[in-house]
Amino acid sequence: MLQEMPFDKVTVSALVSRCEISSNTFYYHYRDIYDLLDAWLNGEKKAICSSSDAWYGILKRILHKMQENPRIVYHVFDSITRERVEKYIFSTEEEAVYRFVKKQTEGMAVSEEAVKAVSNFCCYSLIGFILKFVWVRMDMDVDSSVDMLHAIVDGMIGQIPNLP
Fold first, then answer.
1. What is the pLDDT of residues 140-151, one digit of tens each?
2. Contact assessment for residue 100 and residue 160, using Cβ atoms and an 8 Å cutoff
């Protein structure tokens, strides 16, 4: 249905009718339509990501998948709050970015607090990066753009010991 219409136009009654299930069956599995959206997005994320992947590899696959499905992206993106989008992006990348920063700082005299601060900064940067990606109609070279972002993050991580 997301190929056909914005998310805010999808209703439980239309969905259960199309799936030929009862609304009781729907509500047995999901609290509401947003719960279903979260479950679907988490399934997509699981299909794209693995816990051992670096954040930039995950990001490349996510952005390529978005480019392959622009109608779905804009039907969802234009129908939900920016806060919900940001929360989803942050939760998607947070652990992978933290692992990356932690690994890059092994053997350096860097506090856990600094690692968390840099990880959070990187996650917020990723939110801005992804929002801009959507705003420019996903018209960018994903691989070179993410590679550049990766280089910036690497450079910043290399400066952590020099931070006050």
1. 999 999 999 999
2. no
